[in-house]
Amino acid sequence: MKSNKWTIKNGRYVIPGSDKPVLTGYMTIENDLITYIGEVEPPFESGVEIVDGSRLLFMPGLVNTHGHAAMSLLRGYGDDLALQVWLQEKMWPMEEKFTGQDVYWGTSLSVLEMLKGGTTTFLDMYDHMDRVAEVVELSGIRSVLMRGVIGFCSEEMQNHKLAEAIEFARNWHGKADGRITTMISPHAPYTCPPDFFVKFVQAAHDLDLPMHTHMSETRREVEQNEADYGLRPVAHLEKLGMFTRPSLVAHGVHLNDEEIEILARHQVGVSHNPGSNLKLASGIARVTDLLRAGVPVSLGTDGAASNNNLDMFEEMRLAALIHKGISGDPTAIPAPEAMRMATEYGAKSIFLNNVGRLAPGMKADFIAIDIDQPHLLPHSDLLSHAVYSASAKDVEHVWINGQQVVKHGKCLTMDEEMIRHKAQESFENLLQR
Amino acid sequence: MKSNKWTIKNGRYVIPGSDKPVLTGYMTIENDLITYIGEVEPPFESGVEIVDGSRLLFMPGLVNTHGHAAMSLLRGYGDDLALQVWLQEKMWPMEEKFTGQDVYWGTSLSVLEMLKGGTTTFLDMYDHMDRVAEVVELSGIRSVLMRGVIGFCSEEMQNHKLAEAIEFARNWHGKADGRITTMISPHAPYTCPPDFFVKFVQAAHDLDLPMHTHMSETRREVEQNEADYGLRPVAHLEKLGMFTRPSLVAHGVHLNDEEIEILARHQVGVSHNPGSNLKLASGIARVTDLLRAGVPVSLGTDGAASNNNLDMFEEMRLAALIHKGISGDPTAIPAPEAMRMATEYGAKSIFLNNVGRLAPGMKADFIAIDIDQPHLLPHSDLLSHAVYSASAKDVEHVWINGQQVVKHGKCLTMDEEMIRHKAQESFENLLQR
After folding, report:
1. Family per UniProt (chains A, B) (predicted)?
2. Which end of chain A is more exposed for a tag (fewer CB within 10 A), N or C?
């Protein structure tokens, strides 16, 4: 393959956490990697394409560390309901009817929304994962995929699901030019009995893969865990051996000091899902305490049925806003920290060491937002604007693995009209089945 | 003037609070009024233009009930700071330098952002209000304007500012084809001594105008009010006679039960500003309690320096989300209620009886959002999508007083390129003065 090398000039680049969080200058991309970024013009080489980046703010692609993409088919199907009514009368009966086709079109709808909105990597835990992987392969997005397994079933069925999860993880790890990695994912401690849960830990050891699960999303499930096992969820999962593997838990809303200390000691990541936690009234995670303790906290949208969109700019902003309001401290989660949660910490949380930052040697997963718009003026602090003022719809261009997948707001890799049609049709069919 | 009558067919119309919150059918507009809305086709009249509304969701225009438009010039200028540092080191020194020109371009930037984002009416409390009124006149937006007066000055200066506020209110009330109304607005009980505050109450009586002020935004100002006057702010303002006038207070974050009862008894509106209250870490207003008590609660963005955008969809969503998360009740502030806060209750709060709803006899202030987008599919519950999934940038068309002001996302009444340039230039000049 011929080397593809190009340089952006006049760009502004977001490097949160550095001395100069918005750098103006040059970035060079060679094939799938960023090879240079700096204020000084790189040495001229004939044949290298130069692209003008004026009027654009370049950011690392956003990393969505928890979700169920296919659930976009249930967006708006049962809002403003009590949690158990929502689950038992709305979500579960519909999800039971999901076929591989439904998962394919629901995931396509979500991936299209994520790409157009600047998300370049997403974690997905669901069923019919082969179909999800197909969408990832086709669309050009990067993802960490896993069959999420609920253990409320016969032992035979449990073993069948476990085998499916293992097979999927083994088959797809490293596929799609390395854009797909996999994890092992029992759904939650309250949906998987201990003896079943430990089989996943063993599988993760056997395959040398990290683990992911839902944990401590609601107060009720924490109380149930204590009643059933005499332990709060963190100690319970520690006892089952999960944290002997690199691990990420979703939600972590209800944690005490001791639990935060255990998570920090094992460097277990927490995917904070502020939109979903607020909408389902689960509560507000202790994010400032988690970060202070050194826990890698990243951001996730959760499924679109409890969000109700997959706009990671919104999750950044919610994270930056609600923890100020709750703590009474307007300096809590400043803009650069919110952005790192959505990028660098996100990548770290899902064990991708080469994405999440604009730096030489990193994968060329980056986005450009159009800053010449009323709500992004004046150009005072562009990093702050990206966090507090921008939205998914300000994304102009998206590159993943060095390939452009969104150009002037249009997705280059997916058939948007077909996906819109099929997603609507799938929803209507689900209602009638 | 020739009568301008037209009908939309195949539209979907949001009517929150009704039995059929999303109605499909026809809406007729005659000059500045909505004259028909219904599922049944209105009788055919020759010469009446028929417009196809497929793929669009029509909503009442959003009503932003508290803000300081010119402050958009300070967007991103000092975020993530302690409140007093932000005010004393950042906002006040810059605002002192604001000229009428700065107010003109800052307001233009904000009005442009609001129009493009579906806000058709805004309340503005600031200085150099003649320049604000000019922008309103030119842009086609509807507004309630007032000179906000801070009383930290000599008696002579106080009287000068009061006279200015009165003159402005008298001169501009009912102007711009009735799109401008005015109010009387002492800035806050903590910035206006009681003897000065009562002069505004008297002026409001003399001019028969409603009143607006900031109230109980921070815990500290409530404590200060008690220390200075022996009363909490609501009782203090009641004692000063403010509530003998139709009134709206901004923020109302720190209220006790007795204060809520007083506000309800006098039907004093509260402009809830969730984005600003979270960002400045002021706290979280008791919105569900206020609504339950019968207080008209509306939504405001506050100035862009503490928000940091003027996206009323975001305020709707924040209102619908945070009160669920705080109360632990996922049924709190359901989507139709959040939308009524941003439309119908907003209009009521600023004493406009003929805007805020899509109904015959109401002013033709309405917007259309493009629902054929990935994040707004499937078409399950479009009202819910408007609240939980949409953003300012989904607005396709805007009409105010029957005139189209935004078409396919472009503002028809303002020179966007000029405003962007002048706003940036104004900010740079302020930095150097």
Report:
1. Belongs to the metallo-dependent hydrolases superfamily. MTA/SAH deaminase family.
2. N
